[in-house]
Amino acid sequence: MPDVRITNLVKRFGETTVLEGVDAAIADGEFFTLLGPSGCGKSTTLNCVAGLERPSGGTISVGGTVFVGDGVFLQPEERNLGMVFQSYALWPHKTIAENLALPLKLRKIGRSERDRRIAEALAKVDLGHLAGRYPHQLSGGQQQRVALARALVYSPSVLLLDEPLSNLDAKLREQARAWLKRLQADLGITTVYVTHDQEEALALSDRIAVMSEGRMTQVGTPVEIYETPAAAEVAAFVGRCN
Ligand code: ADP
Ligand code: MG
């Protein structure tokens, strides 16, 4: 049973239609990537799932709960999703542990349970020993892992990651990729990942949806996408010309 179901998602900004009917069914535990060039509508799709944008049409449900559709619109905090953006925006004046405490306080989780969950989330990203530090005392890669821990700390049903590695330099990006793959293998949490980097998509994903101008042009496993691109635009984007 698919965990995330997106049907005929349409989004307009004024006169401009940026999503022209996106469909996707993402299985429980799947690592699903939206891959495509800048401006094709990846972030808009993710933001609609997160509840940060209101779709102009279509439906979104997760685990059978309708988020959007039939007159329903759940607020972001009602969706139980974890999200990490390109700019991970930790609070600079708060320690790592305090950064993780905030989303738990918002959910009215008490002190001792908070401490337990913070320790658990930081252990998942191998940063338990840095809980008392401030963000500027961490490397870019470590800060990114804190952002990931913060997204995981309240046990979301789905993780939404929007170009989370793009602010890292090439070497750190490589490490972060290996590390993300290991975390995914450990947790098995359903993940919707956005990137314009085809290598990243091919390395990490169970399935990839190639997007172009507000549509999904092909959905398949990395091997399917790479070996048998369905259209010239997919071939061009994943670097092969058949
Ligand atoms: P991607 O993440 O694939 O780079 P986006 O989803 O951010 O693409 O954007 C898709 C298109 O929608 C782009 O042309 C972008 O300029 C436009 N767009 C995104 N957000 C807004 C907005 N709030 N208002 C108007 N246009 C927007
Ligand atoms: Mg984007």
Structure in words:
This protein is an alpha/beta fold and 242 residues long. The protein has a 6-stranded mixed β-sheet with strand order 7-8-9-3-10-11, sandwiched between helices. A hairpin with a 2-residue loop joins strand 4 and strand 5. The chain starts with a strand and ends in a 5-residue tail after the last helix. The mean pLDDT is 92. Bound molecules: adenosine-5'-diphosphate (ADP) and magnesium ion. Magnesium ion binds next to helix 1. The site of magnesium ion has 2 residues, from helix 1. This is ABC transporter ATP-binding protein. One of its GO terms (molecular function) is ATP binding. Keywords: ATP-binding, Nucleotide-binding, Transport.
Bound molecules: adenosine-5'-diphosphate, magnesium ion
What is the strand arrangement across the widest sheet?
7-8-9-3-10-11
Could you tell me the mean pLDDT?
A: 92
Biggest sheet statistics: 6 strands, mixed
Order of helices and strands: EEEHEEEEHHHEHEHEEHH
Calculate the terminal CA-CA distance, rounded to whole Å: 35 Å
Tally of DSSP helical segments: 8
- Stretches with pLDDT under 50, minimum 5 residues: none
* Percent range of helical residues: 25-40%
Shape descriptor: globular
Q: What Rg do the Cα atoms give? A: 18 Å
Proportion in β-strands: 25-35%
User: Which class do the helix and strand fractions yield?
Assistant: alpha/beta
Number of strands: 11
Draw up the topology in text.
Blueprint: E1 2-13, E2 16-27, E3 31-35, H1 42-50, E4 57-62, E5 65-69, E6 72-73, E7 81-84, H2 96-106, H3 111-124, H4 140-152, E8 158-162, H5 170-187, E9 190-195, H6 198-204, E10 207-212, E11 215-220, H7 222-227, H8 232-237
Parallel strand pairs: 3-9, 3-10, 7-8, 8-9
Antiparallel strand pairs: 1-2, 1-4, 4-5, 5-6, 10-11
Helix pairs in contact: 2-3, 2-4, 3-4
The protein binds adenosine-5'-diphosphate and magnesium ion.
